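Most newcomers find our protein records easier to grasp once they have seen one. A learned vocabulary of local backbone shapes supplies the integers on the structure line. An example says more than a description, so a record of this kind follows:
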Amino acid sequence: MRKDPDFRLFAYLVIALGVMLSFVTAVVPHYTAGHTLLLGVAFAGLLPYVVYGLFSDLVRGWWLLITGVLIFGVDLGVKIPERFLHYDGYASGVIYYAPFISTLAAIVLLGIGARMEKRWQGEVVTSKDSN
């Protein structure tokens, strides 16, 4: 049996920072009301972190760390320019589909990590077990 470090505390930090970043991105200036909360942007931004949180109990090793860094790095790389540097009302649509792409990447990476952890723990995963 292989012993990997437990990165769940890091995962919780990534989730908390991602939720805050999604909220800040979803609150946009409005000309008559001060600020407006765009629910579509908020829900799309929260999706990768919800999936990451679901997997955080299954995957505890380096796969959790790598996926968290990837999700948060891509999120920062998309949301900082879209919201703070070139805000145009999210007309390009990147703010909507980039979280879905990072969610799919997270599912693949964390799925591989969960499968690898089963092998490391001595539970051999075969095609019969996965059906």
